Amino acid sequence: MSVLLWVVTRLVGAVVVGGVFLVLAYSVILPAIVKTGYRLSKEGLELDRFKLTGGEQASGSEDAVYYAALYDCRKAVTKITGSVPDAVYWMIGIYDSRLQRIPGGHLNDATVEVTEGGQFHLVIQSLPGNLSNTLECRRHRTGLIIYRVFLPVDKDQVAPPTIQRIPIK
Amino acid sequence: MLAEMLAALWQGGLIFVGLGLLFAAGYGLVYMLSWGNSPHWFEGFRDRFKLRYLPDNRFWPWIHQDTQYWVVRLRFDKGPVVVEGTPSPCRYWSISYYPAHEHNFSIDSKSVRLDDEGQFRVTLSKDLEDSEEEQLIQVDRDAKRGIIELRITLHDIEKSVVLPSVYQNDELLVEGGQV
After folding, report:
1. Model confidence at B179: pLDDT above 60
2. What mean pLDDT is reported for chain A?
3. DSSP assignment of B121-164, as one string?
4. Are A14 and B19 inside 8 Å of each other by CB?
């Protein structure tokens, strides 16, 4: 009986320690590795503007143009404005600090509304979704934005969208 | 009581570490042995937790939800690889090789050349200079293993996905077809 008790208590201990470790690894260690990687990389992503990235970290493709930025929707709504690129396909999406996609955080040229002047206006906000041109960040308040343009007519002509951060009062 | 709990925790922690190392070693062994063993297409992101694709599993960052990532894991040290098939009906598709170091060169829906029957033939090889093939992707000369990735973006929802066949040394490695 005492042996059984010893085994059970140690297995419970293993589950507790393992659970704590896995939670830490998922919520702290992995995001820290991603963040450090970007901080040390040439991109050095920012909150208020997009930077051209090579797409290497994203296992990107040579026929695409990638721009990336950070977002933080805890105290601000992020407004993104850009010109529709002349390309076969383009998209913009948000990703959590583990570089995983976020439900409700993806728009592409088929789902975004474009003005008559050929501009798109998006917001990243934590309000409920189902709003047009909205990337919803309610479940992941901080992370990365990626703007991806495939097969542009002229890669050099793909301009980065602009970012405006509007503080939440 | 407290001492007993602490003992259970640290000894349990040791058991966790031991089991973790055992799992990691076992997974590493299965992973290494799985290269070149019955290669197959699998949809990288969506198939990643299926038991039969366990050795194929890896970290999948930057997945775009309107894109399918079909992957074959191969040994490139056994000769040039030929990917042959019909383009899937979609807005964009491309074939790339990873891990490429300089840049991730792709043959895509715009650059691909199709034959009279609407088929493409893409060759991935370490020695492009001697090749008589037309559509080539350079594989790193020191590469032993790697993956071929077929990206399909905005696929026509009314039609089936069509995967190409993969050959190595004139031998069929992976049979293509509709999914």
Report:
1. yes
2. 88
3. EEEEES--TT---SSEEE--TT-SEEEEEEEEEEE-TTS--EEP
4. yes
Q: Report yes or no: B49 at the A interface, CB cutoff 8 Å.
A: no
Query: What's the whole-number mean pLDDT along residues A122-136?
Result: 82
The answer to whether A2 contacts chain B (CB < 8 Å) is no
Fill in the amino acid letter for B112.
Answer: V
Please write the tens of the pLDDT for every residue from B117-131: 999 999 998 887 767
Q: CA-CA distances (angstroms) from residue B168 to A27, A166, B141?
A: 42, 56, 17
Which residues on adjacent β-strands are paired with residue A107? Answer: A92
Predicted TM-score of the model (pTM): 0.84
Check B66 against A91: CB less than 8 A apart: yes
- What is the DSSP pairing of strand A87-95 with strand A142-152? antiparallel
Please tell me the distance from the alpha carbon of residue A21 to that of residue A14, in angstroms, as a whole number: 10
pLDDT digits (tens, 9 = 90+) for A76-97: 999 999 999 999 999 999 998 8
Is the domain spanning A51-167 CATH 2.60.120.600? The answer is: yes
> Which residues is A80 bridged to in the sheet?
A122, A163
Distance in angstroms (rounded) separating the CA atoms of residues B87 and B164:
8
> How far out from the chain centre does Cα A62 lie?
21
A151 with B110: Cβ contact below 8 A = yes
Identify whether the C-beta of residue B89 lies closer than 8 Å to the C-beta of residue B155: yes
Residue spans of the domains in chain A: they are 1-40, 51-167
| Both tokens assigned to A121 | 């206006």
- Which residues on B lie below 8 Å from A87 (Cβ)? none
- Identify the pLDDT of residue A44: 78
Asked if the C-beta of B153 comes within 8 angstroms of chain A's C-beta atoms, the answer is: yes
Rounded to two decimals, the ipTM of the complex is 0.79
What is the average pLDDT across B69-93? 93
Burial A81-95 (b: 16+ CB within 10 A, else e): ebeebebbbbbbbbb
CB–CB contact B98 A59 (8 Å): yes
Q: Cis ω on the peptide bond leading into residue B61 (within 30° of 0)?
A: no
Contact of B91 with chain A, judged by CB distance below 8 Å, is answered with yes
